[in-house]
């Protein structure tokens, strides 16, 4: 357990939103197509503090996640010769026995982000900015996890989940992308003066995006489309992916040339596109997420869709092309507020095409249990349309609803009844679609 955050020592709070890919799952992995992604009101916040070094801690950084049991990671940092940048190594808690280091507690997303961002800073500033001891505390809005644990502080905004991160039940809002993005922003704004880095400068925002994408891919061990990091940075947008080859020349952290390769990659010409102007939600309507207890693995779903696509280029090309039209049509219907009927008609074929791709590739993209639930949900007054978001699967649905109390009550009641009758646990999350990406929070007014 780490000390409580001392509010007077906070230097920065940076937050980034979760995501929902409303349309464009699978096709967005191919840069010939795009995806319609909305940021979510559930955010991950990283609170940066400078700390006075403990006698043994002149080169230590603490990252903690106080909502979880046992989740504090101590790192020692050191320079690596030959443009290797800065490498962190997990170590035991300050003032405790070295054997207290928990062998299975590594947080790859945190560790990789530290390696990438600290190395970038040291290289970019020619070591003129000194890395000093600091603490970065992560607090996530409650909707990221289904609460099986109990809140110990009932009136606090960020619930204590009573479990470790690895055991927490995620709701699929993109916690790692929001975490990597907000941590990257917090480290950059903590160490660099505003004259060198500011989130209100579009060029610096692009640096943050490229750095966060690179760190997120490295930590994940795979290169996804990156729509989750892009929406964490830019908020809602129509997203076209970057070429994975951009990331191929970065060696492992801690090796010669790592920092120069990171800086060079970050400042290359990236070919992703984030079109924010084409997205908006009509006034009086909201995107809401339904968490359905279950679980699917995106990795194998992507593999099976890709295998089908490779074996059926004509059929898949046709369906991917149709889905692309739906991405654009749905974005337009929402942005131009074409009315419930037309928006609903623009959402329908997204569902149908996703289901079709699932059926043809033998992948449970919109499995029968979801079809039944979504069909029934669409019959609830005030529900304009529904989709299985992202990769689809058994565990989530996204709905566009009238944003009024009566509709929300009706949907909640419907889901209660559905859960009882169908033996699942389907729950409306309080999270809403919103447009804003990464931002600096005002620490004086930040609500805890
Ligand atoms: N609140 C948090 N505090 C610390 N690390 C977190 C937090 N949320 C997410 N992470 C990191 O992200 C990982 C989850 O990433 P992943 O399985 O890709 O889920 P998601 O689909 O939500 O991004 C965790 O194992 C942890 O390393
Ligand atoms: C298949 C995809 O196009 C969309 C997956 O979207 P999800 O929202 O399902 O993603 P996870 O948070 O990784 O579970 C893969 C991708 O674009 O990377």
UniProtKB/TrEMBL annotation:
Alphabetically ordered keywords of this record: ATP-binding, Kinase, Lipid biosynthesis, Lipid metabolism, Nucleotide-binding, Ribonucleoprotein, Ribosomal protein, Steroid biosynthesis, Steroid metabolism, Sterol biosynthesis, Sterol metabolism, Transferase
Pathway: Isoprenoid biosynthesis; isopentenyl diphosphate biosynthesis via mevalonate pathway; isopentenyl diphosphate from (R)-mevalonate: step 2/3
Catalyses which reaction(s): (R)-5-phosphomevalonate + ATP = (R)-5-diphosphomevalonate + ADP
One family name in Pfam for this protein: GHMP_kinases_N
Gene Ontology CC, one term: ribosome
Protein's UniProt name: Phosphomevalonate kinase
Recorded family membership: Belongs to the GHMP kinase family. Mevalonate kinase subfamily.
Keyword Transferase recorded: yes
EC numbers, comma separated: 2.7.4.2
UniProt-listed PANTHER family: PHOSPHOMEVALONATE KINASE (PTHR31814:SF2), PTHR31814
GO molecular function: ATP binding; phosphomevalonate kinase activity
Keyword Transferase: yes
Gene3D superfamilies associated with the record: 3.30.230.10, GHMP kinase, C-terminal domain (3.30.70.890)
Listed GO biological process terms: ergosterol biosynthetic process; farnesyl diphosphate biosynthetic process, mevalonate pathway; isopentenyl diphosphate biosynthetic process, mevalonate pathway
Enzyme class: transferase
Domain GHMP kinase N-terminal: 169-235
Annotated InterPro entries: Erg8, GHMP_kinase_C_sf, GHMP_kinase_N_dom, Phosphomevalonate_kinase, Ribosomal_Su5_D2-typ_SF, Ribsml_uS5_D2-typ_fold_subgr
């Amino acid at each position: 357990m780490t000390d409580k955050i001392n509010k007077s020592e906070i230097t920065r709070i940076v937050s980034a939103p979760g995501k929902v890919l409303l349309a464009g799952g699978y096709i967005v992995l191919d840069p010939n197509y795009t995806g319609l992604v909305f940021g979510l009101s559930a955010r991950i916040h990283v609170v940066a503090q400078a700390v006075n070094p403990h006698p043994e801690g002149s080169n230590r950084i603490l990252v903690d996640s106080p909502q979880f049991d046992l989740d504090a990671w101590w790192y020692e940092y050191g320079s690596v010769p030959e443009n290797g940048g800065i490498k962190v190594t997990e170590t035991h808690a300050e003032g405790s026995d070295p054997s207290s280091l928990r062998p299975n507690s590594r947080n790859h997303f945190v560790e990789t982000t530290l390696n990438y961002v600290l190395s970038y800073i040291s290289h970019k500033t020619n070591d003129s900015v000194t890395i000093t001891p600091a603490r970065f505390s992560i607090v996530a809005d409650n909707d990221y996890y289904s609460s099986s644990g109990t809140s110990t502080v009932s009136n606090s905004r960020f619930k204590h989940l009573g479990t470790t991160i690895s055991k927490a039940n995620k709701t699929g809002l993109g916690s790692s992308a929001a975490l990597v993005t907000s941590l990257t922003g917090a480290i950059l704004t903590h160490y660099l003066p505003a004259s060198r880095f500011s989130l209100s400068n579009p060029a610096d925002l692009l640096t943050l995006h490229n750095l966060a994408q690179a760190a997120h891919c490295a930590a994940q061990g795979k290169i996804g489309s990156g729509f989750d990091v892009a929406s964490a940075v830019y908020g809602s947008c129509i997203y076209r992916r970057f070429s994975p080859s951009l990331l191929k020349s970065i060696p492992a952290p801690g090796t010669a040339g790592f920092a120069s390769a990171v800086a060079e990659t970050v400042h290359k010409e990236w070919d992703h596109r984030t079109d924010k102007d084409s997205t908006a939600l009509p006034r009086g309507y909201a995107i809401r997420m339904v968490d359905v207890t279950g679980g699917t693995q995106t990795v194998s779903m992507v593999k099976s869709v890709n295998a089908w696509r490779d074996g059926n280029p004509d059929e898949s090309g046709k369906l991917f092309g149709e889905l692309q039209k739906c991405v654009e049509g749905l974005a337009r219907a929402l942005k131009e507020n074409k009315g419930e009927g037309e928006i609903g008609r623009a959402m329908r074929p997204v569902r149908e095409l996703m289901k079709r791709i699932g059926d043809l590739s033998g992948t449970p993209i919109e499995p029968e249990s979801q079809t039944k639930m979504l069909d029934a949900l669409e019959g609830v007054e005030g529900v304009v349309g529904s989709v299985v978001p992202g990769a689809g699967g058994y565990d989530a649905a996204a709905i566009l609803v009238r944003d009024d109390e009566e509709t929300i009550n009706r949907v909640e009641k419907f889901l209660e009844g559905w859960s009882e009758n169908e033996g699942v646990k389907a729950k409306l999350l309080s999270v809403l679609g919103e447009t804003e990406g990464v931002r600096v929070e005002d620490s004086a007014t930040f609500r805890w």
